[in-house]
Each structure stands twice: as structure tokens, then as C-alpha cells.
Amino acid sequence: MAKRLSVINETSTGRNQTFRDNYKNTNMSRQKFVKDVAAGDKLPNG
Known about the structure:
Elements: E1 5-10, E2 16-21, E3 26-29, H1 30-38
Antiparallel strand pairs: 1-2, 2-3
């Protein structure tokens, strides 16, 4: 089973900036990812 999320971009200090939702085939910014998790969307575990 493939991972739900992949990190596709990070800063030089290692902070994740851009994520790929492998189930929906979409990319999202860190801000969008944090907003969705805070809203209760089940992104990390599907």
C-alpha cells in the first residue's frame, strides 16, 4: 500500500513545504496541509 502523503519540497533547514496527496493525485502547500489537518480532514492516515 502506497503512502498517503509524500514530501516533495523542503527548505534547506529541513522544513517540509510542499506535499503530494498520493490518493487524490494533488499537491498542496504547507499552509493548506496544516489547515486541512486542523479542520479534521484525515489526510495523514486516509
